[in-house]
Amino acid sequence: MRRLDYTKSSSEHVESLGDGPVTAPKHGQLTTFHPVINPALEKRVIRKIDMMVIPFICITYLITYIDKAMLGYSAVFGLKESLHLHGTEYSWLGSMFYFGYLAFEYPTTFVMQKVPVSKWLSVNLFFWGGITIALAGCSNFRSFLALRFLIGALESCSTPAYLLITATWYTVEEQPIRIGWWSTFLGLANSFGGLLAFGVGQIKGALQSWQYQFIFIGAISCAWAIFMFFTLAEHPSTAPWLNTEEREAAVQRLGVRHQGANHREIKKYQIIEALTDPKTWLFFLCGVSTQVVNGAASNFGSLIIEGFGYSNLVTTLFQIPYGMVVLVSNVSAMYLQRWLPGQKRCLVAIIYVCPALAGAVGIHTISRDHKVALLVCYWLTSTYTASFAMVMSLITANTGGSTKRTVVNALFFVSYCVGNIVGPFSFKSNEAPTYTSGIVAMLVAYCVEIFLLLAFAAYAVMLNRKKMEVLHGQGLVLEDAGFRNEETPVDQTDKEDIFFCYSY
């Protein structure tokens, strides 16, 4: 009995579409045919999808991250003084975004199961761009805090939408690479955001530098939202840039398991299964641990660098190498997991957490007299972002059933909010510039993430062994997955589908 090989693309196992469907020989109780696609046609379709879908996610991801990180950049350009912040008020501004995100995460996720995801994302992006512009008009803590909550509420659809769009257009084997592609724009966002803050910081006008920053990025968000609303296709079957043959191939190549990807019915039993599945809570805890670090880096990164003894303008420029490390980490992790036999995603994630852990140790232990060494250690802490991309790909690859996938994604992004809320509060203003508690919190988060990834890998191995036992008991093998009984439900969860093989 052979294991399913996740390292091969679907094009390696298909024949010509023009030859028509191939009737499967009877094997056990499975009697339907397996769809076949011309490899050249499939390659052309994938290339078009890569060109017409992924760029939208990449650019939107870049814009939304800069929206969030702009608070950190503005902190070194007079925001705290203009709003008369004191005590933990700056930390509250960082965390309030995620309170809004948390409050609207479930509603917006279930809305996306009912309405076109691309249109919902575009509308939300337009409004949060407008509110970002409005931040420039705030003159006190309370008004800024309220608008940060609204931006978080509107942006709660963003990353879940990216995952849903990726799952709509790509097979399970293809998704990690595509998630890796748009995740790399986190690095570009850090670099571009730092360069943008530096450039805007040179403006001498009626407004303060931090106000120009919010106006500029908010205007970009609104313009991009309008363009995306009218150009991003919703589904392979309706894409105007594919011809009839290509649309048919784009749908068929996703396979029978994906036919339920856009299922609109909310199923109660799948909600219960999601809530009682240990994988869900392992993903949840991974989300918390990674985002404790993200909440700290996005809101206090510039302040950490400034604490090494650099000026505000130089501080923003030093965010550019940080972003480049993020970019290199995500790209290299993406191809490393593809190269390793069986796509060992948990192993790859752990590999990229280790340099970040070493960097945090360095910041905590190296003397403040060694500014360059501290700066290098800070840049090393960014490699953890590759592990976050791996975790997201694990969720899409290991969760079956439309409603279950929706619930698991929603819970994961609840954990995303929890981590980002906790992260800023671990940095105490009275500990500046060393922020000892915050650095220790990052160290703990890295160690917890490594443990959780090992636990998930062990659990996935156990589940796959149980699946093999069930198949062996019915006289089947994993290669029979393409042949289905006509009465078998399409929208099955990973537990229901006896052919489902877990990736780790």
From TrEMBL:
The chain crosses the membrane at residues 49-66, 120-138, 145-167, 179-200, 212-233, 316-335, 347-366, 372-395, 407-427, 439-462. Residues 53-467 form the Major facilitator superfamily (MFS) profile domain. It comes from the Eukaryota. It is a multi-pass membrane protein. This is MFS general substrate transporter. Residues 1-25 are annotated as: Disordered. Residues 1-16 have a biased composition (Basic and acidic residues).
